[in-house]
């Protein structure tokens, strides 16, 4: 045991305690990454299932005051009515697939029963001063049937976008059916729809792309990485101990001949 006495030194006690603390920390980080992997995989499965589900009339899934659920989000819906461009607004600080900043075009769609569906017709660039209402290509006139993806109301808590007050006329920060119902003085269906058909004439507004899949395998890789790190800590500690023993023994071996050499007569 004499050869391990150095483990009681201040330096080695500190190093050992640090290694002991690292192991459970890394294990917990691995479990956190596992939880993130499971969450993202579940969301990806829900999105895929919703996108491939058969389209249904929008009023089968939502109604005034309804909060769109996780299983209803991204479902393909159809609606028949008329676009009300007089009440059209734009949503600030939105990007397209290339990362360019512009607006989303939100147009009330009056259904045949008089209720209103909020339709995000797509993205347009922020040409000119952002305080001015941009020029927007008109939607189809008269009675129209549209198709799109159902989305939940946007909130600051869910999106991280601050709902700034005092914006220029006909500009908003968040798409929220409750707020739009107050502005329009109408019965507005909960949530909104990202229009996918019919396509805009001339490609403007630019259609919003399908939701991408979250990178769940990356979290799985991080989970394995943290657990491998946890397993490597005691191995690394033992390697350092063995190296310290070897270095001490080599130093002692070099000193022995000098100490054993007889004194000169």
TrEMBL record:
Topology class, membrane: Multi-pass membrane protein
What family is reported? Belongs to the SURF1 family.
CDD domains, from UniProt? SURF1
Organism, scientific name: Streptomyces pluripotens
Q: What is this protein called?
A: SURF1-like protein
Whether Oxidoreductase counts among this entry's keywords is: no
Matches recorded under InterPro entries: Surf1/Shy1, Surf1/Surf4
Tell me the compartments it is located in: Cell membrane; Membrane
Upper lineage is: Bacteria, Bacillati, Actinomycetota, Actinomycetes, Kitasatosporales
Parts of the chain that traverse the membrane: 12-32, 220-240
Keywords (A to Z) from UniProt: Cell membrane, Membrane, Transmembrane, Transmembrane helix
Q: Which GO terms describe its cellular component?
A: plasma membrane
């Amino acid at each position: 045991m004499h050869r391990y006495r150095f483990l009681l030194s201040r330096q080695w006690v500190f190093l050992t305690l640090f290694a002991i603390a690292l192991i459970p920390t890394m294990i917990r980080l691995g479990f956190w990454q596992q939880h993130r992997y499971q969450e993202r995989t579940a969301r990806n499965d829900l999105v895929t299932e919703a996108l491939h589900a058969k389209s249904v009339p929008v009023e089968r899934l939502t109604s005034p005051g309804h909060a769109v659920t996780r299983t209803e989000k991204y479902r393909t819906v159809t609606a028949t009515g008329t676009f009300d461009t007089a009440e059209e607004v734009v949503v600030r600080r939105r990007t397209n697939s290339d990362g360019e900043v512009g607006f989303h075009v939100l147009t009330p769609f009056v259904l045949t029963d008089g209720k209103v569906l909020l339709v995000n017709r797509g993205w347009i660039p922020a040409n000119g001063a952002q305080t001015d209402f941009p020029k927007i290509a008109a939607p189809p006139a008269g009675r129209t049937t549209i198709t799109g993806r159902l989305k939940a109301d946007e909130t600051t808590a869910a999106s991280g976008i601050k709902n700034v007050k005092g914006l220029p006329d006909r500009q908003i920060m968040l798409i929220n059916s409750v707020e739009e119902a107050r502005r329009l003085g109408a019965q507005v269906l909960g949530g909104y729809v990202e229009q996918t058909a019919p396509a805009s004439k001339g490609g403007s507004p630019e259609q919003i792309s399908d939701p991408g899949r979250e990178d769940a395998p990356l979290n799985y890789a991080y989970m394995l990485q943290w657990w491998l790190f946890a397993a490597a800590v005691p191995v690394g500690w033992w390697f350092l101990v063995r190296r310290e023993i070897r270095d001490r023994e080599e130093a002692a071996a070099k000193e022995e001949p000098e100490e054993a050499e007889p004194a000169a007569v």
